[in-house]
């Protein structure tokens, strides 16, 4: 880090972290790639000639060709692969947002309460987490999807609900160390209620750890969704997602390589970038390295 | 030590009960039943069938019966494969799943630890970055993407390896590699991190100062402590490999247990799905326990007796 000794103004955790992150080229590139991808997924489908469910009867199972207007080719039903890949991206990124949000709310709430209340309640709550932690959740999610049909809300909730355990543990640990600090004691001495202390004083101080963890949860969530879609348990036709596209592509492997290659590339690129960004953020926010500047 | 094992077994039992309960009531809450066929069965026959399988009893009673049978090691008859018990089906599929899964973990350990140590020795040099970027790629590309892509390259384009099925050892190559790749990547990252820390510690510096050859330092002094985080990752790795096998067995048409899971759930084969859940759940719990015990043996700082 190149923060000089004469720097003026307060140095918050966030300005430090931002400076550190700016230095990490892989993380920055990942950040911009993801931003571009999100923009493309939101805006591009409206500008294309073909929609993701529209059949181009003249060009069925067509290899990629700019002249025909299908830069990624078409699938065996004549649907434009570019449009379908982007539509799949919408689902994947939406899942990332919603399911991560679900796990964030449950995890932070649960962990903060357990850590703040402490004592026997904490013991009990963490024992529950231990038990749930040992469950092979993927099996239960697959079961849930098979049994209750493909329902996009169910996917969001199910994926979010299995990912809050780590978050709860991390948040609890942080809360335990925060709750005995002076500012919390001062708030308590002033008669602030516990609920308000958790909301106003504990949770804001957890944001650093939580931010890192969220970035690392997102690729995991995307992975789970695409895994389910690959098994044919995710979103429903004609809507699609990257996992579903990879599945379709793997069935036409020997005739239409483009059907699997493009969705795979997008999926891998997205996961790759989120992982790099999360790593960079973790390095940037790691308090152990703060003094090194 | 004995107390620790007992304690862990005691927390394992409620975990298993929660798992069995969740799976049991989830399956039963789902619409449809095991005797739904395209041809409508006469109501009397269906009633008889339901009675024979005790499906006419109240749910809590069925659950009690299932637990009692389970305690005696009886998984019950399969609804879908009428002539087989679930135990027979699981034992028929397990050798295939086990061979692929254990080979994948073995491969992941060897290659992952090797690559991680290699990167640690060249920290912040091009070789390190190359290995770590490759590892990140390995983590980012899911099994079900690598599998068809590997088939496309090695089975379709070059025709070096069979695309699926069982038989020769060659049939195992693609499934094992596919399952191992993400685990190789995780293990390489873990090993690199811990190896860098170990190599900085004073006793390694002492060993270097005494002029021991690098290979001795690595193998005799550094490897064991550096392996600790890898050991504790083996539990989650097993779980990941088992989950992955559900997809891999489908793609490579392997006759293992994983494929029973999805088809069983689709056909409402209650006992078969429960059997797979219980079997794999127990396997993962036992494996986690073994890993914890092994951890204690490797790390003298952790002793499980109070």
Q: Overview of this structure, please?
A:
The complex is a heterodimer of chains A (293) and B (306). Chain A has 293 residues and is mainly α. Chain A has a single domain, classed as MetI-like fold (Orthogonal Bundle), CATH 1.10.3720.10. In chain A, 71% of the residues lie in helices and 0% in strands. Chain B is mainly alpha-helical and 306 residues long. Chain B contains 12 helices and no strands. Chain B has helices spanning 2-29, 43-52, 59-71, 86-121, 126-140, 143-157, 170-199, 202-209, 214-226, 228-251, 258-266, 270-298. In chain B, helix 6 crosses helix 7 (170-199). Chain B is globular and about 85 Å long. The model of chain B has no long low-confidence stretch (mean pLDDT 83). At the A-B interface, helix 4, helix 5, helix 9, helix 10 and helix 11 of A face helix 1, helix 5, helix 6, helix 10 and helix 11 of B.
- Average pLDDT of chain B: 83
Low-confidence stretches of chain B: none
* Alpha carbon gyration radius of chain A: 23 Å
Structural class of chain A: mainly alpha
- Class computed from helices, strands and strand pairing of chain B: mainly alpha
Q: What is the second-level CATH architecture of chain A?
A: Orthogonal Bundle
Oligomer: heterodimer
**Total number of helices of chain B:** 12
Helix content of chain B: over 70%
């Amino acid at each position: 880090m190149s923060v000089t000794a004469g720097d003026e103004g307060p140095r918050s955790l966030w300005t430090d972290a931002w400076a550190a992150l700016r230095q990490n080229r892989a993380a920055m590139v990942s950040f911009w790639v993801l931003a571009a991808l999100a923009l493309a997924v939101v805006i591009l489908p409206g500008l294309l000639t073909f929609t993701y469910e529209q059949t181009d009867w003249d060009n069925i199972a067509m290899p990629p060709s700019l002249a025909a207007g299908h830069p990624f080719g078409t699938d065996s039903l004549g649907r434009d692969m570019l449009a379908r890949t982007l539509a799949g991206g919408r689902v994947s990124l939406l899942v990332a947002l919603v399911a991560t949000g679900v796990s964030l709310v449950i995890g932070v709430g649960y962990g903060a309460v357990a850590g703040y209340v402490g004592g026997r309640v904490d013991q009990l709550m963490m024992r529950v987490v231990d038990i749930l932690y040992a469950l092979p959740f993927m099996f239960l999610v697959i079961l849930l999807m098979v049994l209750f049909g493909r329902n996009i809300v169910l996917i969001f909730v199910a994926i979010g609900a299995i990912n809050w355990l780590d978050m709860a543990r991390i948040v609890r640990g942080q809360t335990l160390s925060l709750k005995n600090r002076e500012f919390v004691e001062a708030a308590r001495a002033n008669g602030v209620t516990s609920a308000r202390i958790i909301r106003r004083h504990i949770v804001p101080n957890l944001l650093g750890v939580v931010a890192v963890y969220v970035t690392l949860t997102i690729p995991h969530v995307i992975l789970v969704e695409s895994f389910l879609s690959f098994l044919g348990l995710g979103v429903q036709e004609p809507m699609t997602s990257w996992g579903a596209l990879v599945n379709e592509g793997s069935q036409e492997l020997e005739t239409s390589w483009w059907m699997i290659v493009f969705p795979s590339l997008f999926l891998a690129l997205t996961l790759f970038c989120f992982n790099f960004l999360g790593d960079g953020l973790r390095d940037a926010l790691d308090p152990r390295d703060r003094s090194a500047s | 030590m004995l107390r620790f094992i007992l304690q862990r077994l005691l927390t394992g039992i409620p975990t298993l009960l929660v798992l069995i309960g969740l799976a049991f009531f989830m399956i039963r809450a789902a619409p449809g039943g095991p005797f739904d066929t395209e041809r409508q069965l006469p109501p009397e026959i269906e009633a008889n069938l339901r009675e024979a399988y005790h499906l006419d009893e109240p749910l809590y009673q069925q659950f009690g019966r299932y637990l009692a049978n389970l305690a005696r090691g009886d998984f019950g008859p399969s609804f879908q494969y009428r002539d087989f018990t679930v135990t027979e089906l699981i034992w028929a599929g397990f050798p295939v799943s086990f061979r692929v899964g254990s080979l994948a973990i073995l491969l992941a350990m060897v290659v992952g630890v090797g690559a991680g140590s290699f990167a640690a020795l060249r920290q912040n040099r091009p070789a390190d970055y190359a290995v770590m970027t490759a590892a990140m790629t390995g983590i980012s590309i899911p099994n079900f993407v690598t599998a068809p892509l590997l088939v496309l390259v090695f089975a379709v384009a070059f025709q070096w390896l069979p695309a699926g099925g069982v038989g020769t050892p060659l049939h195992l190559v693609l499934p094992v590699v596919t399952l191992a790749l993400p685990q190789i990547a995780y293990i390489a990252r873990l090993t690199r991190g811990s190896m860098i820390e170990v190599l900085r510690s004073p006793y390694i510096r002492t060993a270097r100062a005494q002029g021991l050859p690098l290979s001795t330092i690595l193998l005799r002094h550094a490897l064991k402590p550096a392996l600790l985080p890898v050991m504790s990752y083996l539990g989650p790795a097993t779980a990941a490999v088992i989950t992955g096998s559900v997809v891999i067995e489908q793609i490579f048409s392997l006759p293992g247990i994983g494929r029973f899971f999805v088809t069983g759930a689709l056909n409402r084969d209650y006992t078969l799905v429960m059997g797979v859940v219980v079997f794999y759940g127990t396997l993962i719990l036992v494996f986690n326990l073994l890993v914890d015990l092994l951890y204690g043996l490797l790390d003298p700082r952790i002793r499980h007796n109070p």
